[in-house]
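cron nightly-structures :: item 1 of 1
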Amino acid sequence: MSKPKLLFLAHRIPYPPNKGEKLRAYHLIRGLARDYDVYLGAPVDDADDWQHRDALNGLCAETCIVDGRGRSRQKAAVQAIAKREPVSFSYFRHRELMDWVKAKTTAHAFDVVFLYSSGTAPYLGAIVQPPARLIVDFVDVDSEKWRVLGQTTGGVMGRVYAREASLLRDEERALAMRADASLLVTDSETALFTQVTGISDGVRAVGNGVELAQWDKARSLSSPYAKDDRKRLIFTGAMDYAPNVEAVSWFAAEVMPKLRARGWPVDFIIAGSNPTKAVQALARNDVTVTGRVKDMRPWLAHADLAVAPLQLARGVQNKVLEAMAAGVAPVVTQAALEGISAVDQESVIVAKDGAGFASAIAALLNDPARAASVGAAAREVIAARYSWDARFAELAAVIEGVRRREAA
């Protein structure tokens, strides 16, 4: 018996699942493929990801992965101004993918259209036969991120960010009004979305999960670190993402000098793809900028502590979930802990400022048994509450529980 058909449109190819947005999309597709024939459409805008364009062919009934490498954000901004639309719409819209959506929705009546991120909204205009259900996974409130950046960034870029926030908020509201269900990654993001859009009907949280079995194998992988007495503090994430850049820059400036003053032989490892020039400039004897790594698991599992000094954090931080899954004690800001059911001083350590981070890190390094206990408790939290199977069940309940709204 054939499965019902689901059209999944993502703003970026959800593979490899090596950072938050891709990891969530990949696992959602993996879960949805159990019950649906998934037709996946997505662009590739990272040159390193093009090699993976066929990676999801076996999981999906059909894929359309279009080449967006070399696409200019500046050109997209000019087009967006001309069309009076968000820059993200111009950047993620691809003619080849629009044509594919039109062809597929002409040939098939899809049971579900699943839009992943507000950046996929333009593809609604290419849909010929309306689906039985329209689900939008906003993940987090993108417009709020741009609003905060607009307030904290001066000059021309501050005005660009403010424009994006305003236009994107209007589009988020319109998209949620059209959708049968609007998903976000945490209860707090759900509440924020309702606050800024005025829409609560059909808005609900479906959180992120962790594939714990993969992390159970992590310590058996060869360590990437030299065999010496130095301690490693690791931050993971996409290093062209502004909140991550801000976090590591702050840590290098505010925390590392305090640790050096204490005489600790500590290395700060910044592990993640596409480090900006500002991040690369942080590299020195005790600060390592890795760039993209093939497998993040050994980097995390063999580190002494994980740090997440984020000041601006939208949604659940997968970097924190993964550190917890690896059994590595995380030292984090309260913002980085949003949506994660961990208890300060038990399964995580929360710090507020540079002195707090330095003191917390020094205390854990001075007491390896305490660090191991926090790491073990963190892993137990993941095992108990953050399996992807539980998230799949939540998503299935959402899809089955909604009915397409009558056309206005």
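cron nightly-structures :: done
The longest helix spans residues 155-178.
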